[in-house]
Amino acid sequence: MQTITLRFAISAMLAAIGVAGLVIALDYDFGTARQMGPGYFPVILSILLTLLAVSEMIGAFLKPEAQTIDWRPMIAILAAVLGFGICMRFFGMIPAFFAVIGLSVLSEKGYGFVPAAVLATVTCAFAWLLFSRLLGMPLPLIRWDF
């Protein structure tokens, strides 16, 4: 008898989330492709998530493999999300983007400081252009008040 692998278990959880999202989204008006209702996107997204998760479950069942978890990327990405939220709240958009990119690059060994700084600078410029200028959202670039 085959043991359940981590890959299979995670895929099963994602399939369950997809099915739950689909059940919840069916209560909303679906609309059409031309005039999408509030349920259109969640239904399509839930169906895609469920199909991808089930296909991954089948692959994990047919070809089980021993797996180890690399904790470095998981912790770095979780820290990046947390750092972004904290920096956005207390310091503004520019420090938040530098924090999220700075912490995200820790997930990959050998990623240099210069490429990370360039990526953060370009991302800040495009985020400022998109959110502040094009969308007119009043996001503070730098904030020092607590």
List keywords for this structure.
146 residues; mainly alpha; 5 helices; flat
Summarize the structure.
The chain is mostly helical. The chain has helices at residues 6-25, 40-62, 71-90, 93-104, 113-134. It is built from five helices and no strands.
User: How many domain units?
Assistant: 2
Structural class: mainly alpha
Distance from N terminus to C terminus (CA atoms, Å) equals 58 Å
Count of helical stretches: 5
Helix content: 55-70%
* pLDDT averaged residue by residue: 86
Number of strands: 0
Categorize the overall geometry: flat
Structural topology:
Elements: H1 6-25, H2 40-62, H3 71-90, H4 93-104, H5 113-134
Helix pairs in contact: 1-2, 3-4, 4-5
Description:
- The termini are far apart.
- This protein is mainly α and 146 residues long.
- Helices cover 66% and strands 0% of the residues.
- It has 2 domains: 6-62; 71-134, no CATH class.
- It has helices at residues 6-25, 40-62, 71-90, 93-104, 113-134.
- The protein contains 5 helices and no strands.
- Helix 3 (71-90) runs antiparallel to helix 4 (93-104).
- The longest helix is centred in the middle third of the chain and has 23 residues, at 40-62.
- It is flat, with a radius of gyration of 20 Å.
